[in-house]
Design goal:
single chain, 2 domains, eight-stranded mixed beta sheet, 9 helices
Length: 271
């Protein structure tokens, strides 16, 4: 590896990856929307939030699966590639990542280039009790995914007694396996999308919670608007104001200086 990438360089690489992603989507008639902090940056800063270190995009499930089919073999071009969570047995990521293979980020469990997150936008069940049961099912499997990678450590008798149930859960999770939990979560997330349910709710269930638990009115995503993001025109949901209020409250107010820090703290290098 060569020199370390600064936050500003990291942001420039991410914007370039986003640009290649947008061109590919436009060329192949694929629908996408910027979401979360990227949507907030688009509206409040006309670009990436100055202290942000990631970019988030969502795609309706059909477009998401189509994107994977079109790019999995060769990527978007010679240096922009995709990471499919179903095929990456080292990563705990549950979503597609589009990355620049001329860079590398060292994470806890695997290495990848500087990337942007691509979230599937899935159908949520309309019945609130069914929705809660579905959330619970996915939550349990997310915990199983974590436990399947947990390390068993020796402990005192007292601590062992206190943690006996927890240790038993770890053992069960390890027997079932990391791959089982990961595949189950990904397939469960798209269950209602695959059934072509007519629910009025959509959501990004594979996002980190609590953001992933928000049931979003389908109307918010029925139309798209183009807004400036750095040097790009990006697609935002027509209901972006309601989404930002739901996710962040008074979103036009800047956080305090102490809160203006990168969320992930990625350590990235040029290859």
């Amino acid at each position: 590896m060569n020199s370390r990438i600064t936050l500003q360089e990291l942001q420039m690489v991410e914007v370039n990856v986003l640009n290649e992603f947008i061109k590919f989507c436009d060329d192949n008639d694929l629908k996408y929307f910027v979401v979360y902090g990227t949507l907030l940056g688009t509206i409040r800063h006309n670009g990436i939030i100055p202290w942000d270190d990631d970019i988030d995009v969502c795609m309706p499930r059909y477009d998401y699966q189509r994107f994977i089919e079109l790019t999995e073999k060769n990527g978007l071009n010679d240096f922009i590639k995709i990471d499919n969570p179903l095929h990456n047995t080292h990563s705990s990521s549950l979503i597609v990542r589009v990355y620049d293979n001329r860079t590398v980020i060292t994470e806890i469990d695997f290495e990848i280039g500087v990337f942007i997150d691509i979230h599937p936008l899935d159908v949520f069940p309309e019945n609130i009790m069914i929705r809660k049961l579905w959330f619970g099912w996915i939550w349990v499997h997310k915990k199983g995914l974590i436990l399947s990678r947990a390390k068993l450590r020796s402990s005192s008798i007292i601590k062992f007694c206190l943690k006996l149930i927890f240790l038993s859960l770890i053992i069960v999770a390890k027997i079932m396996g990391f791959k089982y939990f990961k595949n189950m979560i990904i397939h469960s997330a798209q269950y209602y999308s695959s059934k072509n349910c007519s629910s009025k709710y959509l959501g990004i269930i594979l996002a980190d919670w609590p953001l992933g638990k928000f049931a979003l009115n389908r109307v918010y995503f029925e139309k798209r608007m183009l807004k400036i993001f750095e040097c790009l025109n990006v697609s935002v949901p027509s209901g972006y104001k309601k989404l930002l209020n739901l996710w962040y409250g008074k979103y036009m107010i800047l956080p305090t200086e102490e809160e203006q820090k990168p969320k992930h703290g990625f350590v990235a290098f040029w290859r």
